[in-house]
Design brief:
By secondary structure, this protein is α/β, with parallel strands linked by helices. The protein has one domain. About 20% of the residues lie in helices and about 30% in strands. The chain contains three helices and 13 strands; from the N terminus they run αββαββββββββαβββ. It has a five-stranded mixed beta sheet with strand order 2-4-7-10-13, with no helix packed on it. The protein has a four-stranded parallel beta sheet with strand order 1-3-6-9, covered by helices on one side. The chain is elongated, with a radius of gyration of 21 Å.
Length: about 170
C-alpha cells in the first residue's frame, strides 16, 4: 500500500505543532518592591528582578508595568543563562538631583548576549537639568554626565542613547 505525502501531511503538522517554545519566566519589578510613585528609588528592586531573570535557566523577562519609576544609576550585568527581555511598559525616570549627575551612566547593560529592550515605555533622563553642568568645551578635566542608556557587549565599548525617548 502506497501512502501519499498528502495523506501524511496532517499528521506531520500535528506532530510539529505539538512542540511549543517555552514562554520565558516573567519577573515583574512590582513583585520585588518597586513603587511607581516618582519618589521611591527603585534601583534595588530592578536589580533583584534582573538578577532572577538573568539567573533563570533559559532566560527570562523583566517586566516594568505602566507607571513612572524613579531609577538611580544602575548597571545590569551578565552573562545570563539565556535570552533576557527588558520590557518597559511604563516610564523610567532619572533623578534631577545635581548630586547624581557626576557618574558616566544612568542605565547600563554589560556582558549580555541575546538582550532585548522594548515595550513601548519611556526613558525620562532629564538631560536639560544637567546641561549647564557640562563644561567640557572649556575644561579638559570636566566631570562626565550620565547617559540615558548604554549597552555593552562583551569586549566592546558601550553604544549610547543620549536623549529622552520612547523605546
Amino acid at each position: 500500500m502506497m501512502v501519499s505525502i498528502f495523506h501524511l501531511l496532517p499528521l506531520l503538522l500535528t506532530v510539529a505543532g505539538a512542540y511549543r517554545y517555552p514562554i520565558p519566566a516573567t519577573f515583574n519589578v512590582l513583585s520585588y518592591g518597586a513603587l511607581p510613585n516618582r519618589i521611591t528609588d527603585n534601583t534595588k528592586a530592578f536589580l533583584r528582578a534582573w538578577n532572577d531573570a538573568c539567573e533563570h535557566d533559559g532566560g527570562g523577562r523583566v517586566l516594568i508595568p505602566r507607571g513612572t519609576y524613579m531609577l538611580d544609576s544602575v548597571v545590569f550585568v551578565g552573562p545570563c543563562k539565556g535570552p533576557v527581555a527588558f520590557i518597559i511598559k511604563g516610564s523610567l525616570e532619572a533623578s534631577s538631583n545635581p548630586t547624581q549627575f557626576f557618574v558616566d551612566h544612568w542605565i547600563t547593560f554589560k556582558y549580555i548576549d541575546q538582550l532585548t529592550v522594548g515595550g513601548g515605555g519611556y526613558l525620562l533622563g532629564h538631560g536639560g537639568a544637567g546641561w549647564h553642568y557640562n563644561d567640557c568645551a572649556t575644561n579638559s578635566r570636566c566631570r562626565p554626565l550620565p547617559v540615558v542608556s548604554a549597552v555593552q557587549a562583551k569586549g566592546q565599548k558601550p553604544s549610547m542613547i543620549v536623549a529622552d525617548q520612547m523605546i
